[in-house]
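This follows on from our talk about sequence and fold. Go ahead and set the record down below:
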Amino acid sequence: MKEKYMKLAIKEATKAYKIGEVPVGALIVKDDQIISKAYNKKEKIGSVTRHAEIIAIEKASKKLNNWRLDGCDIYITLEPCPMCASAIKQSRIANIYCGLNNSDENNINIVKSILKKDKINGSCNINCGLFSSEIEELMKKFFLSCRNKK
């Protein structure tokens, strides 16, 4: 099932790519049902918070009529940034499945720290490496096209 959901997250990332956004897609699943899906819209909307993960969380919360996304998993094409990791943890998503690891070691350490159990929230598991080569190709293609525009 993980592969099926990650392929759908890649489809969302491709939508972002087609409109000139960093190609990141996200999908939230509960009980083998897709609750929400989203892709980056930071440039389109002109807001730093319009990451795929945040948009997917907002849609899932609206659909479930609850900000607590207990029992949900999120599939993301790229390991989350600290902002998104915090939102994921606060929403009580149980598991993160991501395709590509972040290449910034500082970011990785911050995200690991955020996802640990604390006095208020439990921990959030993170598993990376699903379809990483396919996602890496999409990312390279995107950043190459950005360089060619300059």
About this structure: The first helix runs from residue 2 to 18. The beta strands are 25-30, 33-39, 72-78, 95-100, 125-128. The first strand starts at residue 25 and ends at 30. The chain is about 50% helix and 20% strand.
